[in-house]
């Protein structure tokens, strides 16, 4: 079977949608950090839509560590297939990624793109851990990547390190800054990225640069949403069959997709809006609703569901106890913490639950369970803190937290590796002596200290931890 590429694109099977623009006329206007499946299923899809009218929105994708994506996509001229998994699936070849660079191989090539006058946006999907933050939301100056970036600013390891050095070079060249758009699942993601960048510039001893960034550079907040299961063999086979060409790394997602971007996009705002992006004055209400409802429910389903022996979101939602539990958590515990006048919250909850029940999506709970130490804060802990501060209980919110502790205990007892940047610390904590819940709540890189010290939260987590072991139905009946 021939490989997908510019040269073979015209041979793609008839049902497959292909770029409706001439790729030879594209220019790179966006540098993206972290070209994993989510980026390729989401932002790259929106840029692909923009390119018909705006050839200056081509993307240079940068991998911070591994060459896998470059190795798969370079022989395909950056082309790959996006499958929308529904009862009536569709396949679309995305043409927006013009090149993939592997940062450690050639940092200067990356800086050349970042310092190009054509580049107006830097987007990122480096996951929660890629921002190197403390639980208080400051740049963690003890983080190994941050320490390295202070020693070797010309060959950065962290996202803030790349942005600070790139903005320094743009300023020295008399260029305007790019706008840096975080597309990760953190509350106030733009505010957090901006703070990390400013703190790193200060720590580098470049106070002037920090002032310039503060005054000139935009860090729009964004909310991104589309359920994107990891690529599996079934998808590869379906795509090759539909395309009649071999695609080494297709991606898949549900049809639903949403990108809400804070209106700090200058003259380009309309181009984003025309591509289906919601350009909004305030993103926080959308972002919070999505993180706390969808992602909070996802993590709860993942940790409780894995404990009950389920493998996918669809299977977990097939257990009426679990489905009822997450619905009550969303409606009774999360919704009251949201202040989102532009959103019909009850209807949104209904949509999210329906998306979880999409039978065409095989979304592994083990995938969602990754990086729990980084995700819990934005998904469940901030919600719990606010509920308690308002005098409401956090018992149901504590069930997902207790199930995470059980999950870590189980994996570590079985010697199964935990995918989490804090894995060594988590395993050490799991194997230490004394009550497990106390040991975990003492991890200040996971739990904000004020919440961990709150006796109501401690009692809720401890109670759920016991119930999950002895009688899971009772934990879910809460
Ligand atoms: C999931 C998210 O893997 C996870 O942790 O909760 O990736 C989720 O599917 C997306 O945020 C949906 O937009």
From TrEMBL:
Superkingdom, taxonomy of origin: Bacteria
Annotated keywords: Oxidoreductase
Protein name per the record: Mannitol 2-dehydrogenase
GO MF terms held by the record: oxidoreductase activity, acting on the CH-OH group of donors, NAD or NADP as acceptor
Phylogenetic classification of the source organism: Bacteria, Pseudomonadati, Pseudomonadota, Alphaproteobacteria, Caulobacterales
Matching Pfam families: Mannitol_dh, Mannitol_dh_C
Ranges for domain Mannitol dehydrogenase C-terminal: 283-468
UniProt cross-references to PANTHER family, sorted A to Z: MANNITOL DEHYDROGENASE 2-RELATED, MANNITOL DEHYDROGENASE DSF1-RELATED
Domain (Mannitol dehydrogenase N-terminal) ranges: 29-263
Alphabetical list of InterPro entries matching this protein: 6-PGluconate_DH-like_C_sf, 6PGD_dom2, Mannitol_DH, Mannitol_DH/Oxidoreductase, Mannitol_DH_C, Mannitol_DH_N, NAD(P)-bd_dom_sf
Signal peptide: none
């Amino acid at each position: 079977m021939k490989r997908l590429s510019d040269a073979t694109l015209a041979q793609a099977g008839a049902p497959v949608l292909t770029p409706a623009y001439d790729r030879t006329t594209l220019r790179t206007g966006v540098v993206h950090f972290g070209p994993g499946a989510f980026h390729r299923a989401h932002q790259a899809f929106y840029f692909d839509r923009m390119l018909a009218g705006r050839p200056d929105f081509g993307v240079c994708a940068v991998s911070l560590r591994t060459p896998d994506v470059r190795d798969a996509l370079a022989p395909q001229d950056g082309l790959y297939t996006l499958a929308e998994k529904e009862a009536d699936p569709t396949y679309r070849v995305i043409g927006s990624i013009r090149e993939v660079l592997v940062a450690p191989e050639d940092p200067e090539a990356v800086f050349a793109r970042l310092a190009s006058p054509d580049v107006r946006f830097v987007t990122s999907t480096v996951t929660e851990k890629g921002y190197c933050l403390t639980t208080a939301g400051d740049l963690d100056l003890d983080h190994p990547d941050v320490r390295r970036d202070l020693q070797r600013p010309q060959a950065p390891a962290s996202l803030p390190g790349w942005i600070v050095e790139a903005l320094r070079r743009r300023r020295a060249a008399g260029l305007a800054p790019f706008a840096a758009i975080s597309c990760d699942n953190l509350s106030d993601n733009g505010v957090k990225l901006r703070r990390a960048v400013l703190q790193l510039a200060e720590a580098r001893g470049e106070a002037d640069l920090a002032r310039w960034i503060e005054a000139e550079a935009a860090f729009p907040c964004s909310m991104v949403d589309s359920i994107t299961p990891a690529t599996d063999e079934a998808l590869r086979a379906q795509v090759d069959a539909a395309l009649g060409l071999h695609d080494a790394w297709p991606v898949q997602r549900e049809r639903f997709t949403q990108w809400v971007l804070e209106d700090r996009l200058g003259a380009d705002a309309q181009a984003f809006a025309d591509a289906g992006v919601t350009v909004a004055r305030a993103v926080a209400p959308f972002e919070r609703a999505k993180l706390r409802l969808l992602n909070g429910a996802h993590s709860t389903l993942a940790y409780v569901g894995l404990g009950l022996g389920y493998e996918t979101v669809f299977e977990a939602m097939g257990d009426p106890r679990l489905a009822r539990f997450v619905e009550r958590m969303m409606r009774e515990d999360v919704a009251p913490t949201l202040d989102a006048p532009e959103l019909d919250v009850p209807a949104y909850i209904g949509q999210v639950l329906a998306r979880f029940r999409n039978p065409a999506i095989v979304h592994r709970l083990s995938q969602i369970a990754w990086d729990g130490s980084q995700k819990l804060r934005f998904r469940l802990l901030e919600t719990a803190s606010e509920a308690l501060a308002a005098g409401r209980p956090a018992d149901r919110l504590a069930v997902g937290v207790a199930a995470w502790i059980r999950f870590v205990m189980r994996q570590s007892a079985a010697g199964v590796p935990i995918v989490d940047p804090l894995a060594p610390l988590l395993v050490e904590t799991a194997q230490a002596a004394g009550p497990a819940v106390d040991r975990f709540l003492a991890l200040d890189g996971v739990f904000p200290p004020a919440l961990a010290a709150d006796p109501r939260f401690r009692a809720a987590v401890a109670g759920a931890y016991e119930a999950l072991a002895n009688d899971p139905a009772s934990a879910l009946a809460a």
